[in-house]
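Exercise: predict the structure of this protein bound to hypoxanthine.
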Amino acid sequence: REAKLDLVKKHIKPYPDFPSKGILFRDICPILKDPAALTAVIDLFEEHVRQMQPQVELIVGLDARGFLFGPLLAQRLGVGFVLIRKKGKLPGPTVSVAYTLEYGQAEVEMQEDAVAPGQKVLLIDDLLATGGTLWAACELLKKNKAEVLGCMVVIELKDLHGSERVESTVFSLVQY
Ligand code: PRP
Ligand code: HPA
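Solution:
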C-alpha cells in the first residue's frame, strides 16, 4: 500500500500560479500517462470501497476529471457509472445545483432518472479543493433521493478545508 501511494505521489506535478496567480495547481496528467501509477490509484480506491459497509451500488463521477478514474473503478467493482456534468451537457430532464469554485463559479447537473431512490452511491473526483463541487454533487444526489455513502478523491488540499463543507465523509489518497 505504501509503495502504491509513493508511486501515485511521484506522478502528481505542482504548477505555481495556474490557472491564476496564487494557485498551486496539482496536475494528475502524469498519473494517467503511467500505467503503473494509474493502476495504483484504482487499486487503492478499490481496496477502500471493498471494505465499506453497506456496499456501494453505483459510482458517480464529476465532470471532467472524475470521469478519468470513475469508470475504471466501477468496472473493477462490477457496478455502474453515472455522470454529473457541468450545466447544459446532458439531454432529457435534468436536476441542477449552483456552487462556487476555488477559482470561479459553476453549476452541475445530472439526469433525473440517473439514480434510483435509495440507491447507495459513492462520489468520485480527482481533487478536493474548497469542496464546492462535492457539496453541489451531494445536493444533487439528495434531490434525486440517492443515499451518498461517501466521496473519494485522489488529492485533498487540506488548507482549503473542503471536507468541512462536504456533508459526506471524504476519503483521499494524497493530502497537501
Ligand atoms: C476541479 C477539480 C474538482 C474541483 C475541485 O475541477 O477537478 O472537480 O475543481 O474544486 P472545489 O473542491 O473547490 O469545488 P474544475 O471545476 O476545474 O473542472 P474540470 O474538471 O472540468 O477541469
Ligand atoms: N489542482 C487541480 N485542480 C484543481 C485545483 C488544483 O490545485 N484546485 C481546483 N481544482
